[in-house]
Automatic annotation (TrEMBL):
Subcellular location: Endomembrane system
Leader sequence residues: 1-18
Protein name listed in UniProt: Mannan endo-1,6-alpha-mannosidase
Membrane spanning residue stretches: 458-480
Biased composition (Gly residues): 395-409
Record EC number: 3.2.1.101
An example Gene Ontology CC term for this record: endomembrane system
GO molecular function: mannan endo-1,6-alpha-mannosidase activity
Reactions that this protein is recorded to catalyse: Random hydrolysis of (1->6)-alpha-D-mannosidic linkages in unbranched (1->6)-mannans
GO biological process terms held by the UniProt record: carbohydrate catabolic process; fungal-type cell wall biogenesis
Length: 482
């Protein structure tokens, strides 16, 4: 359904409609985020009797709940509202799978490296924010992220393209011959964050290797465009040049973590500012975020409709890890948050969010998890530009106005806000890790076997089962329904 005008929502719903947010006020941002979060949770039933924790209803793919939990951990982090914490914990722990690596057997038919990666990044965020730890007999956030990192490292494939991760984990899933930026971006982002969190250089080395590989085949070019992926059957010689917000965000945030880990190296600083400069040209229209590859043509699918949520989150986190980016990022966050809120004027409640934020306040008539999650992502991310005393770290600061020098001005400082700085295992992080989690666990998943399994025979036997197709990143993903 699509409603094609700009007067309808205001006329029909009156002046109480929409989520108005004053991005200079932490109270206003909290209230706006709370409204958007409530709307998002109306799509989730995993906490209801008889439902499966951690699953959004079909046709949502499994990964999207991981993305939603990531967004809800940020929600708690930025607003302090604990309403959804137990539902998030329950869902994440339910989906870890028997090997404690986010590979539940039920999801084998759709799970790619990126799908697993989104759940792992949610776990990593939980560790970095000291999200309440699971009971000791349950998998722990940090160890879950390490398990996925270790498995991805074991899947690094040098048989084609000089390296890289394939999109898919399993040869029988469509896309096994595609090496893409999001799968490799998940690995890069996890490596960068694990390096910063644990101080273990091995993680940083892997992250560097991923970046170098992406650059070597042209998936990241010298202008910091980040392209979708390439087919490995032709040795990645031809690139799918679609650009998505989440690819820019995942590399930006990973680079910001390595910039921070290396205590401000020029190498990673240049990469952070390079991606940021290019992103602000490609993914913003008059200061408002846009998923330009599909939004202009009104053909974003269910997955793509959620990408702006993650881009928002990673932009916000980048300002914390590389504070000199705040002067560029803060205005983009505030103008996008205002615009996103204004078009959240659909539905009976007058606060349902559509997808297009560039409409000049008009609700575009669409609803969904992605729409709602993207709006929540940008609204809560605006919190990072509120000046807060605790933001300066290290040593005793004389004054209390040093704060966030990158703020766009006019905001009142909120001394009650925490610094939002992600913790590490030497600065208060409490999540228990396991450097050898994942494949090396007794009875753990045998990843090597998959790397060498021949694809076509298995694919043939699965393809008889009935297929639902959906486009992610310009390529086809198949869901085999049994
Ligand atoms: C599930 O979570 C939603 C959102 O917090 C809440 O409104 C609902 O009451 C919960 N349902 C159950 C059965 O706990
Ligand atoms: C897997 O599917 C079965 C059957 O529908 C269900 O009982 C179980 O809870 C599911 N487990 C997960 C982790 O989704
Ligand atoms: C495939 O690409 C890699 C990386 O660019 C290159 O090193 C390798 O020589 C290529 N292989 C073939 C067979 O062209
Ligand atoms: C932090 O993690 C590293 C790498 O796993 C480990 O060597 C170190 O002992 C940890 N430090 C603390 C304080 O737990
Ligand atoms: C690393 O992150 C911390 C926490 O946000 C910040 O205070 C510090 O300035 C950052 N380091 C660099 C080199 O920017
Ligand atoms: C660092 O990480 C690597 C890769 O996971 C692991 O093999 C190694 O044991 C870790 N070192 C420490 C000190 O934890």
């Amino acid at each position: 359904m699509r409603i094609q005008n700009s007067w309808w929502p205001a006329l029909l719903l009156g002046s109480t409609a929409a989520i108005t947010v004053d991005p200079t006020s932490s109270a206003s941002i909290k209230s706006a985020a709370s409204t958007a979060a409530h709307g998002l949770l109306t799509f989730y039933h995993g906490n209801e009797t008889g439902q499966i924790p951690g699953l959004l209803p079909p046709p949502h793919f499994w990964w999207e709940t991981g993305g939603m939990f990531m967004t809800l951990i940020d929600y708690w982090r930025y607003t302090g509202d604990t309403t959804y914490n137990s539902l998030v914990s329950e869902g994440m722990l339910f989906q870890t799978g028997p090997e404690e690596d986010f590979m539940p057997p039920n999801q084998t038919k759709t799970e790619g490296n990126d799908d697993q990666g989104f759940w792992a990044m949610a776990a990593m965020l939980a560790a970095e924010t000291n999200f309440p730890n699971p009971p000791p007999d349950q998998p722990q956030w940090l160890a879950l992220a390490q398990a996925v990192f270790n498995e991805m490292a074991s899947r690094w494939d040098e048989t084609t393209c000089g390296g890289g991760l394939k999109w898919q984990i399993f040869p029988f899933n469509n896309g096994f011959n595609y090496k893409n930026s999001i799968a490799n971006g998940c690995f890069f982002n996890l490596g960068a964050r694990l390096a910063r969190y644990t101080g273990n250089q091995t993680y940083a080395n892997w992250a560097t290797r991923v970046w170098d590989w992406e650059a070597s085949i042209g998936l990241i070019d010298t202008d910091f465009n980040i392209y979708d992926g390439a087919t490995d059957t032709t040795n990645c010689t031809s690139i799918d040049r679609l650009q998505w917000t989440y690819n820019a965000g995942i590399y930006l945030h990973g680079a910001a973590n390595l910039f921070n880990f290396t205590e401000g190296s020029t190498l990673w600083g240049d990469r952070v500012s390079g991606i940021l400069k290019r992103s602000s040209e490609v993914f913003f229209k008059d200061g408002v975020m846009i998923e330009q590859a599909c939004e202009n043509g009104n053909n974003c699918n269910i997955d793509q409709s959620s990408f702006k949520a993650f881009f928002s989150s990673w932009l916000a986190s980048t300002t914390i890890l590389a504070p000199s980016t705040a002067s560029t990022i803060a205005p983009l966050l505030t103008s996008s948050a205002k615009a996103a809120g204004l078009q959240c004027s659909g539905g009976a409640d007058g606060t349902t969010c559509g997808f297009k934020w560039t409409t000049g306040a008009a609700y575009d008539g669409t609803t969904g998890v992605g729409q709602q999650m993207s709006a929540l992502g940008i609204l809560q991310s605006a919190m990072v530009q509120i000046p807060r005393k605790a933001v300066s770290t290290g040593g005793s600061t004389g004054g209390n106005s040093g704060g966030n020098t990158g703020s766009s001005g006019g905001s009142s400082e909120d001394d009650s806000l925490p610094s939002f700085a992600p913790v590490t295992n030497t600065t208060g992080g409490t999540s228990v890790g396991d450097a050898s989690a994942g494949i090396s666990k007794p009875g753990g998943y045998e990843v090597k076997e998959i790397k060498t399994t021949m694809k076509d025979t298995i694919a043939a036997s699965f393809l008889t089962v009935g297929i639902v197709g959906s486009v992610i990143g310009g390529s086809i993903i198949m869901v085999l329904e049994s």
